[in-house]
Amino acid sequence: MAHQAGLSDKNLRTLVANQQLRHPIQNVYIAAQAPDDIPTRIAMLRLVVPEGCFIVDRTAAWLHGTEMALAPNDHLTPPKVSIFRHADHGRLRNELSRSGERTVLARDLTEIGGLCVTTPLRTALDLGRFLSRDQAIACLDALLRLGFFSAEELLAEVPRFAKQRGVRQLRALAPLADGRSQSQGESVLRLRWLDAGLPRPQLQIEIREAGRVVYYLDIGLEELLLAVEYDGARFHSTAADQRYDLARRDWLAHERGWVVRAFRGGDIYGRHDAEAALQAAFRQARASLGERTYIALGQLAEVGTRGRSAPTRR
To answer: Looking at the record's lineage, which domain of life comes first (predicted)?
Structure first.
């Protein structure tokens, strides 16, 4: 369609580089100002999904409302659309799709905007088996967060995949899935926490002041006043963001006695040492709990003075 309108591939690349177009999936471009909502995703997929196929895996999760589940650096190339046919119907062979054959039950499929797609539950079960461990837990969390199925329903479906590819990983990860995780980075950081042998953490811990919630801490143990947070590039990259984060964590430490450790992408992906850092933070929090609890209760020499208010974002 773009070629028919007189645009070359070079023109399209230039428009994407200038942020006038987005290139969410292979061979599909959209105006940068267009919303990233379900109707828009449906319209894009209808351009490339042929009859007699159903959408699966990463593309299905995206269509249901999650962000595209990408590995580090996957964003450098627009992802292919994951489209499968029923078993014994053959795979699609084209440059646009990641395809194959898959056996599904009638209850595994649903329709969205005229497109056949695996249900959120079946999509979670497949991604929990087929993706890398880090991406799998992030997708399980994200799909659970949508609210279409419960953690109990996810666990109840796992036995049906006995002896199938990836079921061991699914058995290990499904009990860990938690819809309260807010991003892929948070999900992976929680996985590193569990890999470090630490107790199962709480998520989105509320910090209150004057009866209202002023902060949520990503992951932690309230009984130890210990929290860890993932600082992703989207919300923690500017100088203003970083000043706010420092002020917030300083307040939590000095006014509430919390030990808060921040992690970025490089700390948890690739050749990471997050487990050792998490174990060290846990030991520190356990060893200093009494002193910090004393601070949190306001029983130091400064008792009776007015504490600092929680910093707010401008």
So the answer is: Bacteria
Rg (the chain; Cα; Å): 23
189 touches 263 (CB < 8 A):
yes
The Cα–Cα gap between 240 and 216 comes to 19
Let me know if residue 127 belongs to a domain.
yes
Range of the structural domain that residue 92 is part of = 9-179
Task: Give which of 98, 65, 95 is closest to 83, Cα–Cα.
Answer: 98
Q: Is there a domain that residue 199 lies in?
A: yes
Nearest CA to 222 out of 299, 293, 137 is that of: 293
Residues of the chain with pLDDT under 70: 68-77, 87-99, 233-237, 271, 295-308, 312-314
As for how many domains the chain has, the answer is: 2
Are residues 161 and 20 part of one domain? Answer: yes
Q: Are residues 32 and 103 in the same domain?
A: yes
Q: Tell me, what's the pLDDT at 265?
A: 86
Report yes or no on 58 lying in a domain. yes
3-state helix, strand, coil in the chain (%, to 5): 45, 20, 35
**At CA 294, angle to CA 291 and CA 300, rounded to 5?**
105
Contact (CB, 8 A) for 54 and 63: no
What is the DSSP pairing of strand 202-209 with strand 226-230?
unpaired
The answer to whether residues 158 and 167 touch, using CB atoms and an 8 Å cutoff, is yes
Q: Do 54 and 32 touch, CB atoms closer than 8 A?
A: no
User: Domain check: are 153 and 227 in the same one?
Assistant: no
Residue whose token pair is 């974002």:
313
> pTM value?
0.85
